[in-house]
Design brief:
Layout lengths: L21 E2 L3 E6 L5 E8 L1 E6 L4 E12 L4 H5 L8 E5 L1 H11 L1 E3 L8 E3 L7 H17 L2 H9 L1 E6 L3 H4 L4 E3 L2 H17 L1
Parallel strand pairs: 1-3, 4-10
Antiparallel strand pairs: 2-3, 4-5, 5-6, 6-9, 7-8, 9-10
Length: 193
């Protein structure tokens, strides 16, 4: 038969409702946790800080869309921001930084060479030589898929913070193998529709 429970519910066993953070104007509520610690429930967020690993650059960018979530398609449909969700962010801050730092311009037309040299007239010879070095480095190491995304104005990124706990939506730009993996997943999803 059924055993009688011989203890009450304990406060430390308590759970709370999920934050289900949506996209929209920033709205955060503070929740007192055990030990007087505070958690910050993000109910709505519209931007976050995203890092571009290979270029060692972090910029604040707008969150534009939720495109993939490995745990649940419902979270994509409702555009819920959770850790490890794949989202699209605004490429403008990253593009501006790249073009200024490398002295390069991302070309939409030329598929053979995705980056072209910017006009360096008016720059000192030391600055010009520094930019020339950086430009050569950019040509070698820049992912072609990333350039396509830059030109479309939207970059794929992964959320690495927990919006319902920290009240922030921070993450990193997808590139290389990881980007390839998620692009294939998204194409497969489109094919099913």
């Amino acid at each position: 038969g059924r055993r009688n429970v011989h203890q009450k519910k304990r406060k430390y066993e308590m759970g709370r409702q999920p934050a289900m953070t949506k996209m929209g104007a920033k709205r955060i509520s503070a929740v007192r946790g055990r030990g007087g610690n505070m958690k910050f429930r993000a109910l709505r967020l519209d931007s976050g800080s995203f890092s571009w690993g290979t270029q060692n650059c972090t910029r604040k960018a707008r969150v534009l869309d939720v495109v993939y979530n490995s745990s649940n398609n419902e979270l994509v449909r409702t555009k819920t921001l959770v850790k490890n969700a794949i989202i699209q962010v605004d490429a403008t801050p990253f593009r501006q930084w790249f073009e200024q730092y490398h002295g390069a311009v991302m070309s939409k037309k030329n598929k053979a060479s995705p980056v072209e040299k910017a006009d360096l007239s008016g720059k000192s010879s030391s600055v010009a030589s520094k930019l020339a070095g950086r430009f050569a480095d950019a040509q070698k190491h820049l992912d072609a898929r990333l350039v396509d995304q830059m030109n479309s104005g939207r970059l794929y990124a992964c959320i690495s913070s927990r919006p319902g706990q920290s009240g922030r939506c921070d993450g990193y730009i997808l590139e290389g193998e990881e980007l390839g993996f998620y692009v294939r997943k998204l194409q497969k999803k489109k094919g099913k529709k």
